[in-house]
Hints:
CATH topology: Maf protein
Number of domains: 1
Organism: Tsuneonella suprasediminis
Order of helices and strands: HEHEHHHEEEH
Protein name: CinA family protein
Pfam families: CinA (PF02464)
Shape: globular
Distance between the termini: 23 Å
Domain CinA C-terminal: 12-165
Amino acid sequence: MTGSVLPDEIVELAQKVVDENARLGRKVVTAESCTGGLVAAALTEIPGSSAVLDRGFVTYSNQAKQETLGVSSELIETFGAVSIACVWAMAQGALAKSGADVAVAISGVAGPDGGTELKPVGTVVFARALRGKDGEPEGEMKLFDGQSRGEVRRQATLCALELLLP
């Protein structure tokens, strides 16, 4: 798609997300940390995305995750911000503070610094939550090629968009 500030592969996937969710009459919300709003930005590249995107939360700091999405400080202290527990709480908080039907949350270590032995650069965690569907957290941890910060964020954005497909 010419004229976009984002790579074609991201815009093409965002188009599918908007089309499929619009077809279902489903609203989405994003809760982003390491992607810094790229998932919401990708969706807003698509004409008609206002029928699908309710809102996007960029909660980069731990304090923002706590204040904006209601993630408990105890959860972050126990499991860390880059954990399935944290992104699940972020997704649940995004649903609670929006009119959306489905939420996706992302947190990770984009690099080049900040990695640890247990969570090296390129570690990104995702969660998807559906309104009215409680139970087991739906999340995953991925290790992307940490060759560059931009590449980690690009791969994380694609993965998060995939999670917004029905």
